[in-house]
């Protein structure tokens, strides 16, 4: 007698459980009424709009049943990531069958009435979306946009040594770039201190209307590909449910045994060798167990099963009978009792309590979230005895702070820094005094800061950095992504999805808030003078502010003390996306720590020491003094150029009253009705006046300032300079000149708006234009900026 | 005696040629003067700012020398794509040595003076960038942003059966998602009708500060990985130049022989089998031939050689001697004559004329560009006897037009349609009456429209679609990318780079203009009601308009005839990025073809048949009649809702004078100083008045309209509705309600801005609010929109 993994009884029970989940899935797509088919199906039982994706669903149902078995058998802590998340009926069906759904949504009870509601709500106005959406317990991955399931899964298991993420990768999704690169994440996973990702590549065969690439290469190539990626693929292929149940059970037993072996060996070993983790390649028919053929068109195992196979029972009455046959093929009377409750011998197959994948707390990470222990950021302050002292580069002061965040975090182990390959380049090298880059590839003697475990994650894929970080945050930890400003656009679309996830989950009471996703864009547009035009794009902010104001924050600290204050705030915050743009090159420092803290807390304010309109830092807006001109700035380089311009104007036109306003928190500019940080109109008017010219030097594209301020009283007087897509390899100062953001242009802009400066103004304007010519000649001759630019300091004359 | 590929003479000559290119590369990075080292090096000979990337350069120089040999030997048409394009000195050095550089830039002559200028200009203000930038002949790929070299290469060879693209893929770049997926492009290449990509994976070992993944996996895994991807990898590994020359020459001979075999066999065979194309894996030291060690730190073969190895000769005088040793190690006197000219026996190694990779016309595709033969789009018109007739879905009328573009293009074979998997879903299924999807994977009986050659390219990777199309356009052909609107953000960053390329090349006289990159975003935000929130994002337009106005165009045709007119225009245009947003679902049609043509030519205009302010289509702005209200709209769904709102207002408030303005060409809204399409202020005022309320229903995020119009006279009266990040699975009409863009909200917005409507207005407002409640109740009960919404037609009452 052949030894099998499953007894005949087990196999029968599991097959029934699978049929139950398939029945519920078809029910969700189609049924408005008659949930247990207690009477013949009639047209009125069918929903009017039929929306959903059947194709991937039965395969995912199959996987879930089998994962339940190994969870119970080995008492595993496992969560389920549905790459083809559009097969939402699968995760909804299973979390309902295992009981988690009804616990969270008591009205979706485990009886006939609950079943009916379960069916009705799916893809219905006021109901639930058709994807593995945030509303579904157990989901950390919506799956609407394809490509990120594997990165999310790896992010989830970092520092979660007991967790296994079963990650279903669709063969459509597998064609995307982010997914194709994510297989290499195994070169970063530590078998002792991290958990395990068990990828299940689901060769469903088809996309919407095409076969998939991986389903149409030879078995040999497929095996080579995944062995080349460093995995040990276990194949499960077929369409006969009985044979497939046995094969899948055996494959999972093998995989779990390999995982246990790897972890045990690693924990016992002194030396580190990257293991070859198991994965499963499951080839099963798309639309498995669905209609074989409709109107002469083959459905099962073709792309025609992608969405709703019988889509118009109203127009084609014969489809009604087909649908009824299909539903009855699962024999619901063998699955549910007359009250609509799953039979107890089937219910017993699901794990219990928090072992259920829908109830595993890792999939609702906010409930596990602990505050990040932070050192006092004031201890890392740069001394600023007088505004304009030269700093070493703002992020270089942040580095030691982050290093000590890591230090304080040794026990909790819930903080990581992610980036393509730029942690040192971005000025955060101090981190490596405390930790290393986690790397499980081979090492060589000349390598630096690589170790099998560490707090810094570097892979030259912004997609992986973002995906890992998202997975890490979604499972209740903290992190930071440092990136070149221009190339953060690579993950625009991933940001979209995460921001949408945050918006929805904030509205779901049982979803606990998670830590914010923090971006540090340290290699920014104004200091890409040596990389040139391709590295210059400050538009990520524009992209970010299109998302719901409840979840997005943008900070442009003008110096290192402000950066420290802002980053401390971001690391404490919850459920936002925080974008912080800061410099890494030596740059002047403006505010001592006390002043910086007050300034950042306000988010925007007058800098009285730079102004001569006799205002203080504007705490009392009633008593504000008159001014002739507002010179506003946001961002480190624009702040420097603004102050230099103010210094020129004050020297040459001493009677002019000038107010300098600096913006750290960009969202302050929006109306308070549009963003929770927005200034009231009164407060805005107090700063920017109701009628005086405003010259605004901005870090990014100028139109963004107009977009944020168009409703303000004095908007028509706001003149903005910023990046206008001009740039090449040149000097740092010339980058500002090419974009009219330099001190000379800013001063000219001011004079142009101040007719009262008359002949004196005209004379100064001539001098400024001469300066611009002088600059051009100097740099083309010497290849560097004029000494008076390189050595300019606030309060000195000509850089003395 | 061992038979070798290279004779001793050949090897010596090639090694000298390599040394010449290395010498020129180091010279470009460092030297301001003394280009031939005719006297000892002094500090004044060195540039003040040292900028560039040495690490990748010698390896690329090595590759280029060897490619020259096989080009000559086999008379190949080959171009060079530099994935690690930041090694700009390599391509500049080689195009200079082969003579193409001086032909294009005569001042960079082939003598000492020219050498000096060549060195000085590199990474210098007013000079050339440090990447394989557009200024460099032979480049179609700047390489600033990593990940797209292989996709560009495949795009370049489609329909270019004689062309071979030698594509150097850096091992850093190979970690990115887009590159990891691009290896699968071989499943789409036809060996008869397409050219060949010869990938050269350059295992340089390190990124900026890290080893690379592919350099740190075993030889076995590496080979499996690329065999799994379907390639036949040929390994060239080592650091001894002599051995490496021989190995590389042998590898390239093998590769060329395999390529010839494959092409010959394919051309002779009746049946199709996907071939296993050769590729080369070159493992050579990073910074090869550079300093071994500086200040005790190993440089060659470590990441420390990434940029400028001796970066401060001024601060460290001993570095000056090291630099001189390094330069002299190439023995320039054995390479150049005393006049600074490459010795003739070396110059003879380069191919001649257009066979030189810097002179191959495919790398300046505009010179090969032929107009796309187009049928008369008017022949595909939808009959619109009266505004509001129901259409079958706008893109469904575009499909037959595109089908016939393909038909007329059979001989020229220079047009392709790209998309992830959505050509049919996007309404362009008519294409398959004429052509098929090109696919060289295996096929099965239930597949549809797959063939080894075809005009439609579908891979579920927006990155590949974009990269292929860019490569196709850059080599002088035409194309269209159809994509879901939300997911086009996946290629935001690729769009950035292409737009930057277009901007720069437009300014380079010898670069001929190429065809525009055309996006058709047919599955747009307002009809993702069945996919839900994750599929809703109209922000790509915002992203696009940040780029230079000279190169970007955005069109929102309100119906099918306008779409035909717009697409005809886009396919004829040159050197733009055109974004066209259009619907695919059945929708009302407004303009007959003649009217549509006029409307699209104007880009914006009054719709007199929908207005009651007695204006014509506004050709004479002097005689414009007064109005009380402007109802503006842009996009198909906003146009429908605006017309429905106007119809309500006209019925209930018949004395109100209403003007309907429709915007097809979004850039018309910008000031003429900002965009070449921008309306003059007078023309804008004529349309939008100077003081009347404007309710603007917009397809995308409302703030974009404010951003484009904030300088206009009447801006403070423009009230915009658009997508505000509200959406889920619901009915199509409810999507507009959730975002306040529906007819009822628009009418309320109008009344709120028209106090003169008094009690009548208040009464109507109450009615409208009741309608909104009725709508909500209806859809939650029935799951579909009220009949009066579903059947509403312009000119009828309540959908009669």
TrEMBL record, chains A, B:
Q: Where is the Xylulose 5-phosphate/Fructose 6-phosphate phosphoketolase C-terminal domain?
A: 584-794
Q: Which cofactor does it need?
A: thiamine diphosphate
Question: Pfam families attached here?
Answer: XFP, XFP_C, XFP_N
Q: Where are the transmembrane segments?
A: none
| HAMAP family referenced in this protein's UniProt entry, alphabetically | Phosphoketolase
Give the record's family classification: Belongs to the XFP family.
InterPro entries reported in the protein's UniProt record:
Phosphoketolase, THDP-binding, Transketo_C/PFOR_II, Xul5P/Fru6P_PKetolase, Xul5P/Fru6P_PKetolase_C, Xul5P/Fru6P_PKetolase_CS, Xul5P/Fru6P_PKetolase_N, Xul5P/Fru6P_PKetolase_ThDP_BS
- State the protein's name: Probable phosphoketolase
Which Gene Ontology BP annotations are present? Answer: carbohydrate metabolic process
Record-level Gene Ontology MF annotations = aldehyde-lyase activity
């Amino acid at each position: 007698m052949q030894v099998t993994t499953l007894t005949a009884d087990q196999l029968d029970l599991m097959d029934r459980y699978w049929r139950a989940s398939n029945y519920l899935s078809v029910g969700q797509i189609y049924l408005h009424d008659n949930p247990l088919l207690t009477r013949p199906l009639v047209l009125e039982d069918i929903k009017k709009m039929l929306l959903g994706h059947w194709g991937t669903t039965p395969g995912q149902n199959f996987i879930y049943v089998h994962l339940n078995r190994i969870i119970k058998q080995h008492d595993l802590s496992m969560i389920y990531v549905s790459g083809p998340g559009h097969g939402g009926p699968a995760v909804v069906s299973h979390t309902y069958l295992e009981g988690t759904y009804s616990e969270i949504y008591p009205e979706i009870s485990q009886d006939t009435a609950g079943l009916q509601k379960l069916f009705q709500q799916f893809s219905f106005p006021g109901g639930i979306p058709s994807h593995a959406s945030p509303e579904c317990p157990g989901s950390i991955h919506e799956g609407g946009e394809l490509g990120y399931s594997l990165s999310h899964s790896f992010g989830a298991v970092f520092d979660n040594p007991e967790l296994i993420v079963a990650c279903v990768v669709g063969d459509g999704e597998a064609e995307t770039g982010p997914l194709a690169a994510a297989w290499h994440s195994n070169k970063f996973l530590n078998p002792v201190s991290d958990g395990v990702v068990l990828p299940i590549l689901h060769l469903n065969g088809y996309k919407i209307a095409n076969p998939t690439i991986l389903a149409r290469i030879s078995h040999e190539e497929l095996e080579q590909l995944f062995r080349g990626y460093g995995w040990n693929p276990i194949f499960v292929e077929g369409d006969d449910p009985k044979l497939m149940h046995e094969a899948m059970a055996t494959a999972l037993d093998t995989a779990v045994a390999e995982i246990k072996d790897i972890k045990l060996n690693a924990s016992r070993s002194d030396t580190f060798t990257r293991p070859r983790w198991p994965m499963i390649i499951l080839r099963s028919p798309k639309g498995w167990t669905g209609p074989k053929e409709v109107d002469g068109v083959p459905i099962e195992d073709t792309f025609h099963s992608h969405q709703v196979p019988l889509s118009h029972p109203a127009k084609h009455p014969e489809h009604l009978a087909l649908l009824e046959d299909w539903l009855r093929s699962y024999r619901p009377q063998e699955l549910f009792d007359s009250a609509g409750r799953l039979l107890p011998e089937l219910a017993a197959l699901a794990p219990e309590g928090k072992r259920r994948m829908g109830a595993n707390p890792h999939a609702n990470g906010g409930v596990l979230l602990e505050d990040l222990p932070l050192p006092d950021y004031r201890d890392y302050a740069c001394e600023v005895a007088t505004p304009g002292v030269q700093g070493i580069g703002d992020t270089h002061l942040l580095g030691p702070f982050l290093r000590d965040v890591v230090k304080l975090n040794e026990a909790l182990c819930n903080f990581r820094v992610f980036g393509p390959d730029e942690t040192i380049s971005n000025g955060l090298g101090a981190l490596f005094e405390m930790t290393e880059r986690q790397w499980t590839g081979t090492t060589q003697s000349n390598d630096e800061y690589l170790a099998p475990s560490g707090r810094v994650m570097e892979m030259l894929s912004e997609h992986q950095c973002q995906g890992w970080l998202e997975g890490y945050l979604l499972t209740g930890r903290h992190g930071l992504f440092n990136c070149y400003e221009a190339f953060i656009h690579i993950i625009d679309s991933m940001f979209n999805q995460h921001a949408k996830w945050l918006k929805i989950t904030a509205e779901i009471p049982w979803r606990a808030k998670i830590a914010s996703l923090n971006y540090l864009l340290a290699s920014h547009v104004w200091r890409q003078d040596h990389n040139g035009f391709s590295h210059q794009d400050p538009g990520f902010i524009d992209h970010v502010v299109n998302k719901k104001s409840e979840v997005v924050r943008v900070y442009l600290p003008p110096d290192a003390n402000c950066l420290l204050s802002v980053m401390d705030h971001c690391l404490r915050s919850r459920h936002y996306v925080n974008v912080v743009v800061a410099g890494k090159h030596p740059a002047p420092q403006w505010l001592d720590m006390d002043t910086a803290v007050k300034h950042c807390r306000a988010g925007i304010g007058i800098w009285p020491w730079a102004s001569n309109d006799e205002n203080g830092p504007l705490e009392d807006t009633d008593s504000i003094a008159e001014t002739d001109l507002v010179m506003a700035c946001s961002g480190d380089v624009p702040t420097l150029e603004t102050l230099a311009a103010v210094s020129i104007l004050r020297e040459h036109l001493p009677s002019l009253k000038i107010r300098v306003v600096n913006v750290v928190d960009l969202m302050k500019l929006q109306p308070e009705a549009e963003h929770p940080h927005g200034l009231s109109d009164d407060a805005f008017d107090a700063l920017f006046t109701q009628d005086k010219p405003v010259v605004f030097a901005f870090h990014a594209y100028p139109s963004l300032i107009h977009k944020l301020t168009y409703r303000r009283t004095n908007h028509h007087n706001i003149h903005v300079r910023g990046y206008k897509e001009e740039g090449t390899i040149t000097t740092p100062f010339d980058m500002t000149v090419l974009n009219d953001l330099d001190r000379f242009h800013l001063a000219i802009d001011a004079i142009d708006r101040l007719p009262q400066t008359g002949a004196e103004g005209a004379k100064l304007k001539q001098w400024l234009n001469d300066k611009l010519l002088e600059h051009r000649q100097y740099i083309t001759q010497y290849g560097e900026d004029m000494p008076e630019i390189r050595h300019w300091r606030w309060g000195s004359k000509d850089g003395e």
